Amino acid sequence: MKLTTSAIILGFFAAAKAELPDIAAITSVDPSSFPSYQTGGLIRQGSNVSNLVTRQDCPNGQSGDGNCCATAPILTWGDAYSGGPGISIANGSPDTYYGFYIYENSCDSIPYKYIWIAGGATEYITLPSNFAGRITRGTDAMNLAGVPNLLGTWFEFNWQPNGWIWGDISLIRGCDQGVLLWTTDGSGAWKGFTQDILANAPVGAWAEKPDGTWVLAPTEGPTADAITLDYELSAVGAEYAYLDDSHGSPVIAGTNGFFATYWDPGTM
Fold first, then answer.
1. For burial by CB atoms within 10 Å, which of 6, 47, 59, 91 has the most?
2. Residues of the chain with pLDDT under 70
3. pTM of the model
4. Measured distance CA(263)–CA(244) in Å, rounded
5. Superfamily designation of domain 34-263
6. What is the distance between the alpha carbons of residues 82 and 10, in angstroms, rounded to a whole number?
C-alpha cells in the first residue's frame, strides 16, 4: 500500500503528540544532502521595516490573507489536521506551558493567532495557504498588549502558489533561545539549533525585553549589535540560522506544505 502525503503527516503528527521528536536523528542528516538557500521562496519582513503596522486593520478583525492586519487574535489550543498547509510546534520544556504567537508580515502589533502548549507536548496550527509571517515565543502580557514586540528568535515561513513551504530560523531581531525546523516530505532537510547560546554570551551582546528579561540583541537593523553577530556566527553558524544578509544559506523548503518545529525552553 502506498501512503499519501496526508497519511504520512497524520502518522507523524499522531506520534508527535505522544512524545517529543528525536532531535539527534533529525540533526544527524548531513546538511550537504539537501538543498539550502540564501532566500529561495521565503518572503522576509526586512529588519528596517517600521515597528508600526504598515497595512490597514481588517474590518472583520481577523486576517491571515496578507491584505490587512488582524485586530482580534485567534486563540487556539491546537487545530485538527485534515491536510493542507500547517505547522507543528513542539514545546521542549519538560513541565512548563509556553505561549507561541503567529504574526503576519508587517503586522507587528497584534498576532493573527496564538497558542499555549503544555510542556513536552506538540500541537498543530492551521494557516491560510497564502500566509507569510513568523512564530515567536511570548506571553499574553507582552504580545497581546497591542504594541510590537520584535525582540527574540523568529521562525519565518510562508507558502508559495505551488504549495511548497519555505522557512528559516532568524536571529536578526534577537534571540531568546533555540528553535529547530525540519521538513516532513522525506528530504531530511533541517535548520536551526538547540544548544543553549545564552549561557555563554559575552557582555555587550544583550538587549532587554519590555518585561525586563534579557536576551541576545538584534544583528541587523537600527539596533544591530556587532558583538552579538560575531558571537552567533561562532555559536550557531550562518548555515543554520539567518544572522544577516551577508552570510550563509539558512532557508529550506518543504514540498508538502508542512513544517515541524521544536522550541527549546526560552527566556520570556
1. 91
2. 1-18, 46-56, 59-66, 268
3. 0.89
4. 22
5. Thaumatin (2.60.110.10)
6. 8
